[in-house]
Amino acid sequence: MARDPLEVLTRPAPPPDLTLRYGPGPDHVVDLRLPADGRTPRPLVVVVHGGFWRERYDRTHAGPQASALAELGYVVAVPEYRRVGQAGGGWPGTFDDTAAWSDRLADLVVAELGSGTVDLDRVVYVGHSAGGHLALWAASRHRLLQTSPWSRETPLPVRGVVSLAGVCDLHLAAELDLSNGAARDLMGGDPTTTPERYAVADPSLLVPSGVRSVLVHGVEDTNVPVALSTSYAERASSAGDRVEVVELPGVAHFEVIDPRSTAWPAVTAALESLL
Question: What are the helix and strand counts (H, E) for the chain?
Answer without folding.
Answer: 8, 8
